[in-house]
Amino acid sequence: MSVLICDADGDLWYTRTEELGLPCISMPYSYGGEVYYYDLGKNTDFRKFYDAVRGGEVPKTMALNPDEYVKILQPYFEQGEDVLYVSFSHAMSGTFDHLQTALNELKEKYPDRKCTVFDTKSICLGAGIQMEYAAELKNAGASDEEILQKLKAFRDRVTVYFVVDDLMHLKRGGRLSGMAAFAGTLLSLKPMLTIDEKGSLKVYEKIAGKKKALRRMADHVINELTGTEYKVYVLDADSPEEGDAFAQMITDARPEAKIVRQTVGPVIGSHCGPGTIGVIFVADKRPIPLADE
After folding, report:
1. Residues 77 and 220 in one domain
2. Would residue 68 count as lying in a domain?
3. Could you tell me if 148 and 183 lie in one domain?
4. pLDDT tens-digit map of 42-55
């Protein structure tokens, strides 16, 4: 058995990680000349962050360096523990190259210890719902092998859709080409985005107008949601009334859905920007993008 850990790019709320006994690696972001490490909402000033972004501040995210990973993992190895790390998508960050450098260094000191990294191939609560599932399995007595086996099947069912308010945030973060962002803004397009099977951000549909995009996104949840075994996470980036209205669309058609409302954390919010509405749920299979940028 290993110690199970996760990271803050999964956006799983701090009360839930504490309830599950799930250690979490804080991920860095910066704005206003200061660097912060996201604590999953425990002491995060969301209003200050989103007000700053609306005021023109351009936040940035960054990779942890190898020394930081060593400091995180070494205490477990010193205690004779192996680590099972359920992480956000490796396709979205270079931080995992630094993690591997740290693991190579630690292997020389602790040759009998290992860190197994499971790539959720998702981000935000698309990763977080998998982290939650892994912790639930572990707390129920599942072995590492059983957890990994079940996670592989579960990963292919985790569905992420979201609509952003301003495409230029995705453009600045390198998640969308400049031409696509400019054209979408000019034509008032609000593309519904998803995460593909490789863990990369993709356009699913291009829709004119945010209201229509949110209605279309709700219809996908209503039609694709498999049941009530798992939660439906509805997220907003400092747009609670819009998020509540979107959640109500789902509830009206699928009253059995177990909806959890949450704020998008500043690490993810640095890329999607204020006004983003997203939904994460479990379907029969992960969506296949219908359109490219």
Report:
1. no
2. yes
3. no
4. 999 999 999 999 99
